[in-house]
Every structure is written in C-alpha cells, then in structure tokens.
Amino acid sequence: MEQPLIITRRLTKNYHLEGYPVHALRGVSVEIGAGEFVAVMGPSGSGKSTFMNLLGCLDSRSSGEYLLAGELVSDLSGDALATIRNRRIGFVFQNFNLLPRTSALENVELPLLYCGVPAAERHQRSRAKLEEVGLGDRMHHHPSQLSGGQQQRVAIARALVNNPVLILADEPTGALDTHTSCEVMALLQQLNRDGMTVVLVTHEREIAAFADRIISFRDGRVVEDHRGEQPNDAAAMAARMQEEVET
Amino acid sequence: MNLLASMRIALRALRVNKLRSSLTMLGIIIGVGAVITMIAVGAGAQARVEEQIRSLGSNLIIILSGSVSSSGARLGFGSQRTITEDDAYAIDREVPAVQAASPALRGAGQVAGGNNNWSTAFWGVSPEYLEAREWNIAAGKAFGQSDVQGSAKVAVIGETVSKNLFGDADPIGQVIRVNKVPLTVIGLLERKGQSFGGRDQDDVILMPISTARNRIMGAAHSKRRTVNSISVKVREDFSMAEAEDDIRALLRQRHRLQAGQNDDFFLRNLSEVLGAREESSRIMTLLLAAVASVSLLVGGIGIMNIMLVSVTERTREIGLRMAVGARAQDILTQFLVEAITLALIGGVLGVTMGVAGSYAIGHFAGWRIALQLESIALAVGFAGIIGIFFGFYPARKASQLRPIEALRYE
Asked: Closest to B316 (Cβ–Cβ): which among A53, A97, A114?
C-alpha cells in the first residue's frame, strides 16, 4: 500500500505569549494521502493555524514527528526547510501576499528565482501557470490593478509554478466575496481533480463543504475527522450565482 | 540565487522608493565628493610647495657669513663678511659631495636699457651658479669661465628686468647700464616665479663676479674678495648631512678656527625648510580628507538607518520570500546588495560631483588642484566598504527573521 503523503505523530507545539505558556497543539496524529482535498476547521485558538504552519515547514514543532512524502522533516535545518518549502509546497494566503508594484508574471516567478531556474525557463513556466489560472491577459498587471479574485489566482499560479506535491491554503477565501470565493474554490477543486493534494484551513462551513474530508480542531486536538459524502461542486455553484446575478 | 538576480531585485526595490533612495545616496554622494575635492585641493597645495622647492633648486645649501666675535661682543649673522670667493672655489674643488658651488656678490642699483630704467638687484656669480640653482637659460647663452677671468661686460637678465626695460622686444644683444657701466645682455633666464617669501625671483641681473666686483662695485670690495653667500648644490647620491659636515670642516680649516671656537659662517639647507612646509601641507591634506571622511561615515549611517526602516517595512515581503523558498542567505544577500548598490551608485555620482567641485574650486578660487586617480578609487572603494559594513547589520536582521513571524507581521 502507498504511504500517505503527510504523516504526523503526536505533534505538539508550545510557546509563550506574554509570559504565559500556550499549548497550541497537544499531540496531533493525522495521515493525509496523496490526492486528498482536506479542510481543516475549528474556531480561532483551536490550533488549526499552528497545525498548518507546521505542515508548511514555516514553524518548528515542540515534540512529535512530521513526515512529508516519506521524509522526516521535523528535524531539518532552516535552509533544508527552505528547500522543502520551495520544491514541495505551494502556499496560498488569505491576504494573497503578492509583492506590490511587481507584475503578476514576476510574482509567479518568485519561487523559481530561489532554485536557480534560468530566466527564459522562468518566464515560460510562469506564463504557462498564469494561463492555466485564466490570467493570460493580465501578466504584466501589478497587484493593485487586479481584483481580489485575480490576485488570489496569481497567488495560486505562484504556488503551482514549482510543481509542488502539496498546496496549503490558509483561509484563501477570507478576503473575497461569495461569488469570487466559489471561483477560487472551483480552481482548487480542479487542481485536486488533476491529482494535487490540497489542505485548506477555514472556519467557514460552506467553504469546508467543498473538500472531501474535514478535520476539526478544538483546543489543540483533533475532535472530528470525517470523510463527507459528495462534496459540493464549486464551479457549478459559481455558475449558478452568475446566472442569478444576470437574471 | 545568483548575484545578478539579487542585484536586479535590489535595483527594483531602490526604484520603487526613488525619493528615499536618492536622499540616502545623497549622504554618500556628498561624502565621496567631499573626499575627492578635499584631496584634490590638498594635493594641489602640496604640488605647489613641491614646485617651489624645485624652483629653489633641490639639494641646495646656502652658506652665509656667520657671527663673529669682535672684542668679546658677538655680532649677528652677516654683520661682517667672513666667506670669500675662494671659499666657494675650494668647496667646488675639494668636497666630493658637491656638484656645483658658486659665490654670489650682491649689489643693487639703477639699471638703464632701451628707453627705460629700472631699480633692481644684481648678482655677481661664477658660471656654476646656474647649475647650483637649477636655473636654465631661456634664450641666448650663459657667461663662461673666460668671461669671469676677463671681467667681461656681459650680463644675463631675468624676465622681469627684460620686460621692464625692453617690453616684448628681444633683449639679447642689447646694452644695459648698471650703475652707468654698460653691459651686453647675452642671455635671458627662464622664468622662475615667486620665491617662497613672495620675492620675484625673475627681477634679477646675473653677471660674472669679477665684473660686479671690479667694474661696478669698485675697489672697496676688491680687497678681501668676500661675498654675500655661496650657493652649493649637493650631488643626488650624497646625503645633505654628509655634505654639510664636509663643507663645515673645510671652511673651519680655511678660516683657521680652533676647536671650541664658533663657526664664523652659517649653513642653511633651504630644502629642509621647505620640506617641513611640504610635510605640513601633507598633514593638511590628510586632515581635510579625514574631515571629509566623517561625512562619508555619516552617509554610511544614513544607509544603515534607511535599510533598518526598509527591513521593518518589508517584513511581510521577507516572510513571503522565505515561504516560497528563500534561505536566510538569500535574504542576507538581497539586502546587502541593496545597501552596496546604494553606496556604489552614490559613490559614482559622488566622483562626478567631486571632480566637478574640484574644477569649480580651481576655476573660481584660482587654487591649484590636483585630481588623483588613487583618491577617486579610494573614495569609491570606501563607499563600497561602507555599504557592506552598514548594510550588514540590517541585512542580517532581515535574514534571521523567523518565516512565520515575518509572514504574520502587521
């Protein structure tokens, strides 16, 4: 049997906030297989964001183990983690995190810059990804000239450009209206159908409903892990909303 | 990530904040410009002093009459003439370190020539005088040994005398009357300019010492053949101190001075005096450069300040770059290159300003300036080093941010 893409074993994270110890994660053991679309839910303070940061190698755990694609990454050095983030993981953030006054194309090229891809190949790959997310005609626009949905699609193109094994989306629809949220979710669903593993953090039940599997956090522990029936189809929902607006 | 990519990122970041970048650069521009200008001005002054030393003749020793005791009362230098023409010839002949030595007998009087007359000094000297003073003939020729032997009625005149008597006409072959004695001008001296004391060195007439003594000054001077001074040029490969010792020993012997008796002559090493001046002008240059360097340092602190602000302002950008795979070293390089680029662009603009400023000072203040390639290279190099030095701390601070904290920074 194929090994799960993500394995965490009794992962904990403690830190101090203004002198008080905070137990953000109290032993989380989760397995996520390749090709899954997982939503991580929970109220704020439940530890879901901390979990996400650990999965994304942006933070270090206090104890426990984390294996990504069979590699034990919980003990790697900072530079090695940077390489993992660069090659294996694509990030999508709530506030897009695009570089201001920098064209969409150059924003997408950013991860390639840090793994020494030559300029010509960088342009070509970034162009292809922007076309894939439907922004072929906006390549030279700056973020301020793009709508929220378009900005998030640039960010998704950036997450994809290095062909990662995992997309981590942290509240990707938090700053978007309902219709645009559905469009962005449709894009993530499409990627998932094409074989990409997607882990999504959200506190909105409607957004989580687009995922195959929902893991709920509370007080630093997993309280529920269930595989839904048929997930909602975001593309269809977006189309329906479009019709409603037009009629 | 390679350096070229880092530089492109840095240039973009600097372009985004044009006003701030140019103000930051201004510190370096002024610093580098000031260093270059100050060194140019200082080196110009130094070059002037060096030129004055050359005009005086290098390795020159002037021997003057010294103090003598007359019935127990010590008289001042030169109050009684103790050195003679023959002392000069003996020095020329007997001291191996001496290249040329010439006696000089000074007189002053009214000179008439052409339709003009002019009051000036004349010197009776031997043919070695020109060699001793490193003075060349601009036109015509110098007088020789036979002219001295025959008390020939010839003279070599300085440019100022020539101008005042003959205007722009050729003085060679003209007759001048020095205290009513007619002399034929056979040579024109090369222009020397002002001496260190501000005296016009070209306002002079040189003639054979015998002519001066016998024909112009008259019998009173003929007796002991004393002279005002002896100019001695020391050979390049001999030390001045050694030459001075030998000359002193020879003169003491010739003047029959006992051990313990004071010298009745006085040796003045003029290059030494001017050497001290040169040294002081060199110190002045250093001082100016040091003051200018302070402004360069202040410019560097300006860079550090702006880079620190920039790092704080761009914390989220740093977080994002780390999230997409930038290693600490990549972030360090990026900010370091940014600081160095600021400093180097400032340095290059500063060179332009420094060169322009130097020429402006040279033109408007009429000062001698000497632009030095080394000082330009030094200033730009120093600017680069300042970029590295003051850019390192902010860059390191940026690179040591933790990705998750940088990303969540508000």
From this structure: A97
CATH number of A35-47+87-246: 3.40.50.300
Domains of chain B by residue range = 3-52+276-407, 83-254
Q: Is the pLDDT of residue A28 over 60?
A: yes
Q: Is A71 helix (H, G, I), strand (E, B) or coil?
A: strand
Name B200's bridge partners: B194
3-state secondary structure of A129: helix
- Of A13, A158, A141, A48, which is closest to residue A92 (Cα–Cα)? A158
B321 contacts chain A (CB < 8 A): yes
Chain B residues close to A101, C-beta within 8 Å: 16
pLDDT tens-digit profile of A53-99?
Answer: 999 999 989 999 999 998 999 889 889 999 999 999 999 999 999 99
The answer to whether residues A33 and A213 touch, using CB atoms and an 8 Å cutoff, is no
Residue of A nearest to B8 (CA): A113
Domain boundaries, chain A: 35-47+87-246
What is the residue whose two structure tokens read 């037009």? Answer: A246
A179 or B194, higher pLDDT: A179
Which helix (H) or strand (E) segment is B338 a member of?
helix B328-364
Q: How far is CA A201 from CA A215, B9, B142, in A?
A: 10, 32, 104
Taking CB atoms within 8 Å and a gap of at least 24, the contacts of B143-150 are B143/B186, B143/B187, B143/B207, B143/B208, B147/B208, B147/B211, B148/B208, B148/B209, B148/B210, B148/B211, B149/B210, B150/B210
Residues in B closer than 8 angstroms to A87, CB to CB, are 325
Ranges of beta strands (E only) in B18-97 are 60-65, 69-70, 73-74
Q: Which of A60, A85, A87, A122 to mutate to test the interface with B (most CBs of B within 10 A)?
A: A85
Q: Cβ distance B28 to B386 under 8 Å? A: yes
Give the 3-state secondary structure of residue B107: strand
d(CA A208, CA A199): 10
Q: What is the Cα–Cα distance from B317 to B234, expressed in whole angstroms?
A: 73
| Residue written as token pair 């709920």 | A216
Q: How far is B321 from chain A (nearest CA, A)?
A: 8
Residue-wise pLDDT tens digits, A1-18: 478 999 999 999 998 888
Q: Do A113 and B5 touch (CB under 8 A)?
A: yes
HSE value, Cβ hemisphere, 13 Å, CA-based, for B376? 14
Tell me what pLDDT residue B67 has: 64
Q: In which band, very low, low, confident or very high, does the pLDDT at B222 lie, cut at 50, 70 and 90?
A: low
Contacts with B2 from chain A: Cβ below 8 Å: 116
CA-nearest residue of chain A to B325? A86
Cβ–Cβ contact B220 with A under 8 A: no
Three-class secondary structure of residue B221 per DSSP = helix
CA atoms within 13 A on the CB side of B192: 27
